[in-house]
Amino acid sequence: MIDGYSLLIFLGLSLLLVVSTLVQRKVPYTLREIPGFQRLRRAIGLAVEDGKRIHISLGRGVLLSENFGVTLSGLGVLKLLSRFALISDHPPIATTGEGSLMLLAQDGLRSTYNRLGLAPRNLPQQAVLAGTTPLAYGVGAYLETREGRIAVDLLIGHLGNEAAWLGEASHRQGNLSIAGSDHLTAQAVFTAVATYALIGEEVFAAGAYLDSNTAQRASLQTQDIARWAIVVFLILASGAKLLGI
Amino acid sequence: MRQPFLSLSFSTLITFLTGTVVLLGYFTDLPPLDGLRLRFLQWAVLLSAVALLVGVLNLARVHWSRFGEGISKALMSLAFFLGFFVALLAGGLLGIQNTVTRALVDFVIVPIEASLFVVILVVLIYALTRMVRKQLSAFNFAFLATVVLALLGSVPLPATQIPFFQGEDSPISYALRVLGTAGVRGLLIGIALGSAVTGLRVLFGLDRPSGE
Fold first, then answer.
1. B114: Cβ–Cβ under 8 A, 6 or more apart, which residues?
2. Could B27 and A171 be called an inter-chain contact, meaning their C-beta atoms sit closer than 8 Å?
3. Which residue of A has its CA nearest to B31?
4. CB proximity B5 to A under 8 Å
5. pLDDT in tens, A107-122
6. Domain of B196, in residue numbers
7. What residue of A is the nearest CA neighbor of B147?
8. Which pTM value belongs to this model?
9. Among the residues of chain A, which ranges form H helices?
């Protein structure tokens, strides 16, 4: 038996992504302003000048679960930021709540070191498994934020209630915190505790705002087109139901 | 610099092939694809377990190196090693069903986590008051009003209900249910699309969030 609808959605999205990537080369997609990302660019430069670190909290996304999408977005951001920040005396640190995620983060940092022609230094200290349960992770990452001479806390990954710890630690240290998650509770928590909260799909846009990579922009364009298609479908379906069709 | 449309490396090829097999295994139930999908998933589960072990050893290594970084960090690292060895001995030697291990979980870990959870509630209340004091934008006002209305609608009172707020058919409860569900659906659709497209980007080798 074939799950026709799922296969159709998969093929449709794939086609849209490929076409958008090709179109991006001719007509770049214009991004709307997200204040958090604009502030982030400046904050990275200031952090490097001040000899402070950037902390990226990647959360507890499990490799085989549906919440790994946002974790991939966080890993991409770590890799992009490390290009700017690895040259400083205080390279960025990443905290994770999952072993495989820690290895992927270290791999990303290693690749950036190689790309910059530098020898990787102290990778085990730069990407750490802070805890394996939600609260243990929250407290572990809290301690990193408090002790690590941090200027910017980027919380991008699968986080839950424990995100309150991280946001509060960041606030107490006077850090800039930009936070987004796929978890709805975490999004509500971020609205209260973070300097800039990323709502809904904004968390997936981080890569496109930090890098002019065509694939990142194409990905955003694909999401926007698909979202409009869903909106039109929902309106038509609601209308049809109202009319009794 | 113009980037190649598909940057095919060995690891990208492996990602593409395994990802395609697993996805097709989900969409169809053809015996060879389904078997391969399960085999790949088993390997991934095994690798995840090994990665967890590596992560814990990495954490121990980090804490070991912090013994020389001042009293505060050394004390925290000492607490970590004490907990680590007690958990290792209790879980590894006595087994997870042993009375001592269960007592450690019930009387040490669960109360600590419960107290941390309570602290989270306090942190959130404090953060809300800070939000009101610092910047009451239209968005923050809507957020705060929703929190207050939702609390009024859901807090149980002894032998009474707040008119207009509580009860299945009350206007506020109905509005929160309908608007809340609509908002949640909107957010979830955005997140699902973002996750799917991010996954596709990695599958097609358009993006490599880790590695070269």
1. none
2. no
3. A1
4. yes
5. 999 998 888 888 888 8
6. 150-212
7. A188
8. 0.88
9. 4-24, 35-50, 68-85, 99-116, 123-126, 134-147, 163-172, 184-193, 206-210, 214-242
Nearest chain B CA: its distance from A227 CA (Å): 7
Domain boundary among B50, B66, B94: B94
Mean pLDDT of B171-177: 83
pLDDT surpasses 90 at A145: no
Domain ranges within chain A, ordered by starting residue: 33-207, 212-245
Would B115 be classed as within a structural domain? no
Q: Looking at the complex, does the CB of residue A201 fall below 8 Å from at least one CB of chain B?
A: yes
Q: What average pLDDT is seen over chain A? A: 89
Number of domains making up chain B: 2
**Chain B residues lying within 8 Å of A13, measured CB to CB:** 196-197, 200
Most confidently predicted of A143-147, A161-165, A205-209, B42-46: B42-46
Q: Is A196 helix (H, G, I), strand (E, B) or coil?
A: strand
Residue pLDDT, tens place only, A171-182: 989 999 999 999
- How close B164 gets to chain A, by Cα (Å)? 25
What CATH architecture does domain A33-207 belong to?
3-Layer(aba) Sandwich (3.40)
Query: Is B116 domain-assigned?
Result: no
Q: Is the pLDDT of residue B46 over 90?
A: yes
Contact B198 A3 (CB under 8 A): no
With beta carbons under 8 A apart, name residues in chain B contacting A25: 2
Asked, for residue B181, whether it belongs to a domain, the answer is yes
Do A145 and A173 form a contact (C-beta atoms < 8 A)?
Answer: yes
Residue B142: closest CA among chain A residues belongs to which residue?
A: A191
Contact at CB, B201 and A162, closer than 8 angstroms: no
Chain B environment of A171 (Cβ under 8 Å)? 127, 130
B7 pLDDT band, cuts 50/70/90, is low
CB contacts of A65 in chain B (<8 Å) are none
In a domain? residue B27: yes
* DSSP letter assigned to residue A52: -
